[in-house]
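Please produce the structure of this protein holding magnesium ion.
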Amino acid sequence: MKMLVVMGRGGTGKTSFTALMTKYLIERGETPLLLVDSDPDQNLGEMVGVDLYEQGKKTISDLLIETFLEEGGTLVGVPPSERIESRIWAYGMYEGDDFDFIAVGTKWIEGCYCLPDAALKGALETLTKSYRYVLVDSPAGLEHLNRRITSKVDDIFDIIDPSKKSFDHVKRAYRVAKEVKIEFQNFYVIGGYRFPEGLETQVRKILPFKFLGQISYDEKVEEYVLLGKSLLELPSDTPAYLSVKRIMENAGYA
Ligand SMILES: Nc1ncnc2c1ncn2[C@@H]1O[C@H](COP(=O)(O)OP(=O)(O)OP(=O)(O)O)[C@@H](O)[C@H]1O
Ligand SMILES: [Mg+2]
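Below is the modeled complex.
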């Protein structure tokens, strides 16, 4: 199992990149995939054509609250991580042909509950083992890193827009990930769709991370997002998809 995490400032294109990366891995037959939406805004579902609630599923937050706060001491003897794991499989997991999908949800992000956090971490460690790739779409801030719900990651993709803030974000993200002791193999930087061509040389000078390329601006992506259509259905010759393909190849997924 390989875990890929997408990060970046607000609106840089994290969620659409996660969706297009999904499309790429599906087309290469690199399944089964697990998609994890860890953004409380929950946009990833729509971009890959999944409506969790319509499917009668719940978010991980809801399940954690039900299991540990509302029910309290039932199921004595079953370790917390096993308890939540079986709940996730039964009530939180959307199972599709090419990928499965879970969403962390809102409420959880706000508090800090040590037992459920630890339980979730344990559950995710076992649950993710059945997949070839686990793709995580992150919220814009960096606070989520502190929860350390996953501590072993293969690749981090940080998407930047052309702003100093974005450059600072990358450095901070790298530092925080190190500080909270998330182990990762690669820390990659990607130019978002608003990133002008040619700025790449500058990025390479300023940032000590591997720059994988940039995501092309694509009217079709805008259109699909506006209509709530799945980006998995984008034609394979659209600029954004082709650019993501190149990015993935540069990261060694060829
Ligand atoms: N390649 C692209 N070409 C044109 N527009 C794009 C492209 N990618 C994303 N967009 C537009 O930018 C908006 C933000 O993209 P996206 O939701 O992927 O960013 P995000 O980083 O996940 O945002 P947030 O921080 O809110 O989660 C989308 O609504 C879409 O309209
Ligand atoms: Mg997003």
